[in-house]
Amino acid sequence: MSYTFDRATQPDAVQQHFDLFLQHTTEGVWDWVDLDAQEQWWSPRFYELLGYCDQEIESSLDTFERLLHSEDAVQTMLGLRSALENTSRFEHNFRLRVKGGLYRWFRGQAQVLRDSSGQAVRLTGSLSDIHERILLQTELEGTRLQAFRARELQQSFLAMMSHEIRTPLSAILGFAEILSDSSEDEETISAANTIHTNGQYLLDTFNDFVDLSRIEEGRFDLKLQDCCPLTVIENVKSVALRKADPKGLALNVDLDHSLPTSIQSNPIRLRQILLNLMGVVINYTHEGTINLSVRKSDAVPSDQQMVFTIRNSGNGLNIEPINQIFAGRQLADLTSLTYPGGVGLSLSLARHLVRLLGGEITLQHETNSASIVEFTINTGTSCDIKPQQLSLSQRIREHKTSRSSFGMLRQPCRILLVEDGIYNQRLIQYLLTKAGGSVTLAENGQQAVDQLGAALQSKTDINEQFDLILMDIQMPLLDGYSATELIREMGFNNPIIALTANVMPGDREKCLQAGCNEYLSKPLDRKRLIQTINNLLKSRRKRILQLK
């Protein structure tokens, strides 16, 4: 039986307005007048949403419960009872079986009417069809989940490739340097330099690819800091000379005398921009001179931007594809790009980094076919921008990074090297022994823990056994994270340096959290390694003296 309003008890105008409302609303209306009975009133639109004609099926609580999907019935009915027993409003999403047997998603809402004592006496509400919205949300959630899984898979792949590429490159570059430094035969030195140049090119290309992936995913963290642009330029000049000399190219650097001695930027990324652009220009210049000039911007306010201009002579670069990259075209769209190797990656990354540093980048030709690559960066407003009336050579010397002896350990040092790769074992052992260290090898984290554990059992102070530990991270049996944590628990307080090919975002922080004092990445920078060891041992000596 279906409940209907008693029209005789309602003024005609009110009834007319109510009927008009029911005709035009997209929601179904329901009314449960007698809470002690099963009978309810459903509006014609309520029936229509379920696929039925008006009053084609019984409008009751029992009917509603039978139409509910089995997975939604319990929670929906509990929600109704909770609304009646408490002061809460009924508001639920659920599936109802419509005519024909299919289920659709609906949203039910209702307000409880109570008497003066707070007792529920009536429940009036509405029913909305939300089926398409739920399907769309489900589809979007599925798409987001797929995208998340794809990103996770990409990150896992990049992390694996980073480790697999950096580990052998560490040995290749390291032994190439040793061969070049120790040999007196010109052909051997030339061959070693060729190996090193091409190995470094492979590493740079891979690093560019990883950085571009991080930028495109919005996970690229660019921190600004006070830094000296002259130091960055000097470093870039020394690296660029090593590339230009074999081709017989001259390299000139011209710095404006009013350049700031300190700017607010990111020195690592500024160096990366310059090296990428200089590398491309050197690759495509076969004779003549390459000029790098740096000045303050002519724009107003001029103290907040620097301009870097790279000119080559003799032959120009292919301007169209490069400008497409600088304009933001995807590499996959650059079908006319004829540059080999990672040139496209280098240019695209340089463009992104320039914009992240607040500037723009352009390429143009001069009339003599020479090319001009020019970019700007912001310098900030809190930096030292006082003009310096010094010659270029004086200013470069003044801002050189301290080059105190990096090649030797400043004190006898007992080092435990934990490394599973045989070629990197040989390389690091050779470098540390030559620098004056005494090296003990452990081929994985478990061997390192066992060696220190044996010292404890023999009542030997493990802090007297080794002055420092070099810890690889990805190893069989027991990885570097777990080994470091166990070694710290055993009471080892001396420095531990993570020396690893894991260079993805968060890897450094994970190493420090495990108990490492420092983090160095592969391929190995031998000067930085020796410098880091010297600094940590110096800090350790200071702590010991303070305790005494």
From TrEMBL:
EC number: 2.7.13.3
Domain PAS: 33-87
This protein's UniProt keywords: Phosphoprotein, Transferase
Residue ranges of domain PAC in the record: 90-142
Alphabetized Pfam families for the sequence: HATPase_c, HisKA, PAS_3, Response_reg
GO MF, one annotated term: phosphorelay sensor kinase activity
Record has Phosphoprotein as a keyword: yes
Enzyme class, UniProt record, top EC level: transferase
Domain Histidine kinase span(s) in chain numbering: 160-381
UniProt name for this protein: histidine kinase
Organism: Gimesia chilikensis
Taxonomic classification: Bacteria, Pseudomonadati, Planctomycetota, Planctomycetia, Planctomycetales
